[in-house]
Amino acid sequence: MRIDSPEFSAMSERVLEVTALTSRLNALPFEDEVGKAELFEQILGRPLAPRVTIYPPFYTDHGLNLDIAERVFINQGCTFLDYAGIRLATRVMIAPKVTFITGGHPVDPADRRVWLTGEPIDVEENVWIGAGATILPGVTIGRDSVIAAGAVVADDVPAQSLVTGGKATVQRTW
């Protein structure tokens, strides 16, 4: 999406709206279930599925592209940058401070301030994502997998797999 497009302007307005909503959500008393439910409905554009547990603080930049199935658990301090869509299937468990990123910019310096890129993230059933993990654009995490704490997931994860590691490496220079 071009950054100077009407679509980008509309998305930017939504980001500001959702930032205000999540700020209100994160300031509510922990036991205010009714207030949290109302704010989540405004953030997601629909009510939360049954038996979803989300501990604040909770952050998202768009909300309308975040699909949370039943029996999902999201611990505190997680961030969902859902520009291109994030789907969490049933029984997904997410530890504190996990980050999901669906948007980005081109690598070429001349294009970085012109384009916004994005690919969806799909987390299949019964996945456990450890504390501080980062899930990058375009990733599918297969059923029953475990993502270790601190892992950076840039590629698809097969079902019933354990993924670890987060060491950055130089791929090229320019």
Automatic annotation (TrEMBL):
Entries under Pfam families matching the protein: Hexapep
GO molecular function: O-acyltransferase activity
Protein name: Sugar O-acetyltransferase
Coiled coil: none
Entries under Gene3D superfamilies matching the protein: Hexapeptide repeat proteins
SUPFAM superfamilies attached to this UniProt entry: Trimeric LpxA-like enzymes
Keyword field contains Transferase: yes
Keyword Membrane carried by entry: no
Top-level taxon: Bacteria
Signal peptide: none
One Gene Ontology CC term in the entry: cytosol
Keywords tagged on the record: Repeat, Transferase
Protein family per UniProt: Belongs to the transferase hexapeptide repeat family.
PROSITE patterns per the UniProt record, alphabetical: HEXAPEP_TRANSFERASES
